[in-house]
Structures are given as structure tokens and as C-alpha cells.
């Protein structure tokens, strides 16, 4: 009879012990798979939502400045050698090495006009890009689609009483108010938004850009690299990362990962202890059997192999079942942790990893019981007969 046949027969005779072993290791593997899969999916979901939250890179014209102080008093500052961002520079942004990480490029042009004693800042934007950048905007009415249409912030609409009168004259040109922003609690509330080419023509800024807001996907690419590449491509511009936003995103993702690793290690430790205690109990119960094996000529290595083969078979079953249970627990957790069920597929690498981890933990936890069984004195063991 071969060693693996002996191991299989032992498992068949001790179905209760096998069930307890499988369940002890299965819970650990299922918990690890569920935590890893849930954390990975939540990381992707959070990263996607955060990358949609707004700009994390700001591009502005570069200028030299001089701070004026005299006698300890600040007299303000003086800007000179002001450089402009060309509209042609927008195409260069898409040519950087990490261009795949650039999700949204929203150029802006600024101008000021006064009406009825109120001054307002006009911002020329590409509405397709701007609406993609600011998904939290809620508009009463419609987003502008034509060159002669504008969008007003909540405060600007109140200043100019544009809601009941849907026409607003800016620098002698009539514009139709397509919609009004609901209050955002930001500077957007006091702004007037219009089509980018229209604003350039209206304020005499054809071919130039006042500022560029860029939303970059930062999960798998350091933001500093993107900033450096943009600075090389746009020497006449100052490229700045919104560090608090970027660091907040990365800290959130890292916290999820650390939590997952810590809980996984703890659950695996508990699972390995269950296997160890159960295998030790099994060895103590099989004293006579092990003594007979030794008496009829089985070597120590043979006895160790029998114990380890049993542990490997149990661990293999626990790994496969634990992976499937972990995926089921993941789906259940996501229904409580998210408003929608993120799309995810079964990952064969995770399945292989779960099986490998289960077998590794099972063998390591069974190593000492196997050594104990192999060192058992056959004469002492046979006295129990």
C-alpha cells in the first residue's frame, strides 16, 4: 500500500476530524479572500470616484514677481515678465509620457464685467470638460450648448436678477441664461460661465488660456512625475499639484490596504492554530497506529509524509472551498459598503493564491505534529495495545 493511500484511508475513517480541520482553515482562507477582494474592489471604486471629484493639477501662466516692503511695511507686489499659455499648449499635455493618466483637461479664460453696480468674473470654459470635471454641479435649467448661452452661479443670478429675465448683456453682447447653478458653497456661486471661444473673442484673448485644470488618475502613477513632465512640455507655465487632494486620496487607499493586511494576518494565525491543535490531537489519538507502522518497518520520513499528505489534502479542500466562500462574502459585504455593486470578475490568480496559502499554512501548522509522530518510540506506542 502506498503512503498516499494510507493518508486517504485515514481521512475517510476520521470524517469528523476532517470536517473540523477543513472548517477551521476554510474560515481563515475565506476571510483573507473576502478582505483582499473587497479591499481591492473598494480601492478601485474609491480611486475612480476620487479621480472624478475634481482637478488635482493646476496650470497657470508663469510670471516673475517682486515683493515691495519699506520700513517694515508691506507695499504690495509687482508682477513683471508675465508669460501666457498658448491654446496650442493644450495639445502638448496629451503628449507627455504619462498621458494615459490624464483624464480631463479643462482650459479657462477670465474676464471681468460690471452691471448694475456689481462686478462679476466671467469664466470661459469648455462645457464638456468642465461638466466632466465638476460632477457635483446641479443645474436648474440646461447646460449651455450654443455660443450665445451662459451659465450663472447662484449668487451671480441673484445679483443680476437673471432668473426671471433670461437675457444678460455682457460688454454690449446679449447672452441667454441657459441655466443657474445650485449653491455649491464655493467661488463658483459668484461666477458667470460661457463658451471658451466666445469669451476669448469677447475679451480680446484669442489664442490664449488663463488657466488649465487637469484631473489625473493618480492611483498607479506618482503625481510628481506628471507635474515634472508637464513642466518640461510647458516651459512658459507654472504647474502645481493640489497636494492635499492627492495625499488624501493616496492615504485613503493605503489605509484600506493596511487594514486588510492586518486582519488577514490575524485570521490566518487563528486558522493555523486550529490546524495545529487538531493535528496534535489526531497524532495523540493515533499512537497505536503510528507504533505499528514503526514496528513493521516504516521510516520516520514515511510517517511524516503520511501526516503531511493528510494535511495537504485537507488544506487543498479548504483552499478551494474557502475561495468560493470568500467571493460570496465579498458580494455580501459590497451590498452594505457601496451604493451600487461594482463590477468584478473571478480572478484565477487570487484562486491559486488562496489554495497555495491554505496548503502552506496547513503544512506549516502540521509540521511539528508530524515530527512528533515520527519520533514516537514504537515500544512505548505498542504498550497501549
From TrEMBL:
GO MF terms held by the record: transmembrane transporter activity
Domain MacB-like periplasmic core span(s) in chain numbering: 20-208
Keyword line: Cell membrane, Membrane, Transmembrane, Transmembrane helix
Domain of life of the organism encoding this protein: Bacteria
Broad class of the protein's primary localization: membrane
A Pfam family matched in the record: FtsX
Membrane topology, record value: Multi-pass membrane protein
Boundaries of every ABC3 transporter permease C-terminal domain copy: 263-378
Claim: Endoplasmic reticulum is one of the keywords in the record: no
Stretches that traverse the bilayer: 259-283, 303-329, 349-371
The keyword Repeat appears for this protein: no
Any GO CC annotation of this UniProt entry: plasma membrane
Subcellular localization: Cell membrane
Family designation: Belongs to the ABC-4 integral membrane protein family.
PANTHER family linked: ABC TRANSPORTER PERMEASE YTRF, MEMBRANE COMPONENT OF TRANSPORTER-RELATED
Protein name per UniProt: ABC transporter permease
Organism: Desulfomonile tiedjei
Amino acid at each position: 500500500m502506498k503512503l498516499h493511500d494510507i493518508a486517504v484511508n485515514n481521512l475517510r475513517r476520521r470524517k469528523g476530524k476532517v470536517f473540523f480541520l477543513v472548517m477551521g482553515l476554510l474560515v481563515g482562507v475565506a476571510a483573507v479572500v473576502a478582505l483582499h477582494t473587497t479591499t481591492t474592489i473598494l480601492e478601485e471604486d474609491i480611486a475612480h470616484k476620487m479621480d472624478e471629484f475634481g482637478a488635482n493639477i493646476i496650470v497657470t501662466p508663469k510670471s516673475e514677481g517682486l515683493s515691495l516692503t519699506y520700513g517694515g511695511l508691506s507695499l504690495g507686489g509687482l508682477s513683471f515678465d508675465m508669460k501666457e499659455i498658448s491654446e496650442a499648449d493644450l495639445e502638448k499635455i496629451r503628449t507627455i509620457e504619462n498621458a494615459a493618466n490624464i483624464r480631463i483637461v479643462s482650459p479657462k479664460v477670465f474676464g471681468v464685467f460690471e452691471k448694475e453696480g456689481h462686478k462679476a468674473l466671467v469664466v470661459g470654459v469648455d462645457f464638456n470638460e468642465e461638466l466632466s470635471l465638476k460632477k457635483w454641479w446641479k443645474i436648474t435649467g440646461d447646460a449651455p450648448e450654443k455660443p450665445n448661452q451662459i451659465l450663472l452661479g447662484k449668487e451671480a443670478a441673484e445679483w443680476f436678477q437673471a432668473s426671471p429675465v433670461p437675457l444678460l448683456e455682457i460688454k454690449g453682447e446679449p447672452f441667454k441664461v441657459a441655466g443657474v447653478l445650485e449653491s455649491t458653497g464655493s467661488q463658483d456661486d459668484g461666477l458667470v460661465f460661457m463658451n471658451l471661444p466666445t469669451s476669448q473673442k469677447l475679451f480680446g484673448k484669442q489664442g490664449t488660456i488663463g488657466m488649465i485644470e487637469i484631473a489625473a488618475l493618480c492611483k498607479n502613477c506618482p503625481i510628481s512625475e506628471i507635474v515634472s513632465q508637464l513642466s518640461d512640455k510647458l516651459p512658459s507655465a507654472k504647474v502645481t499639484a493640489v497636494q492635499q487632494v492627492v495625499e488624501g486620496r493616496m492615504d485613503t487607499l493605503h489605509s484600506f490596504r493596511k487594514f486588510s493586511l492586518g486582519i488577514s494576518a490575524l485570521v490566518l494565525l487563528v486558522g493555523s492554530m486550529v490546524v495545529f491543535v487538531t493535528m496534535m490531537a489526531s497524532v495523540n489519538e493515533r499512537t497505536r497506529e503510528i507504533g505499528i507502522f514503526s514496528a513493521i518497518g516504516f521510516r520516520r520520513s514515511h510517517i511524516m509524509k503520511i501526516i503531511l499528505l493528510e494535511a495537504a489534502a485537507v488544506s487543498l479542500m479548504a483552499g478551494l472551498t474557502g475561495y468560493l466562500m470568500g467571493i460570496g462574502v465579498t458580494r455580501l459585504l459590497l451590498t452594505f459598503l457601496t451604493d451600487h455593486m461594482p463590477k468584478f470578475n473571478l480572478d484565477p490568480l487570487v484562486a491559486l493564491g488562496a489554495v497555495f496559502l491554505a496548503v502552506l499554512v496547513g503544512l506549516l501548522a502540521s509540521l511539528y505534529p508530524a515530527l512528533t509522530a515520527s519520533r514516537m518510540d514504537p515500544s512505548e506506542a505498542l504498550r497501549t495495545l
